[in-house]
């Protein structure tokens, strides 16, 4: 059984999510992923080589960094937006 690394999937995540949202009803927000410095370094190096990853590259990188493919995909999307803002 594999976890995505999000806090909201842990036991009692519903209560923690409601408390984090100020107790308001509605959609629950996922906890922010805290990447290690090694993970960020590897992600940045990969991003410098190629701005977009295919499914195979994403799968390999996710396995190497012990992250989910969705986390890799989201990181690359956010990094491309950061680059766009800088330009």
Automatic annotation (TrEMBL):
<dbReference type="InterPro" id="IPR009057">
    <property type="entry name" value="Homeodomain-like_sf"/>
</dbReference>
<dbReference type="GO" id="GO:0000981">
    <property type="term" value="F:DNA-binding transcription factor activity, RNA polymerase II-specific"/>
</dbReference>
<keyword id="KW-0539">Nucleus</keyword>
<keyword id="KW-0238">DNA-binding</keyword>
<feature type="region of interest" description="Disordered">
    <location>
        <begin position="1"/>
        <end position="35"/>
    </location>
</feature>
<dbReference type="InterPro" id="IPR050848">
    <property type="entry name" value="Homeobox_TF"/>
</dbReference>
<dbReference type="InterPro" id="IPR020479">
    <property type="entry name" value="HD_metazoa"/>
</dbReference>
<protein>
    <submittedName>
        <fullName>VENT1 protein</fullName>
    </submittedName>
</protein>
<keyword id="KW-0371">Homeobox</keyword>
<feature type="domain" description="Homeobox">
    <location>
        <begin position="26"/>
        <end position="86"/>
    </location>
</feature>
<dbReference type="InterPro" id="IPR017970">
    <property type="entry name" value="Homeobox_CS"/>
</dbReference>
<dbReference type="GO" id="GO:0003677">
    <property type="term" value="F:DNA binding"/>
</dbReference>
<dbReference type="GO" id="GO:0005634">
    <property type="term" value="C:nucleus"/>
</dbReference>
<dbReference type="Pfam" id="PF00046">
    <property type="entry name" value="Homeodomain"/>
</dbReference>
<dbReference type="InterPro" id="IPR001356">
    <property type="entry name" value="HD"/>
</dbReference>
<feature type="compositionally biased region" description="Low complexity">
    <location>
        <begin position="1"/>
        <end position="22"/>
    </location>
</feature>
<feature type="DNA-binding region" description="Homeobox">
    <location>
        <begin position="28"/>
        <end position="87"/>
    </location>
</feature>
<comment type="similarity">
    <text>Belongs to the BAR homeobox family.</text>
</comment>
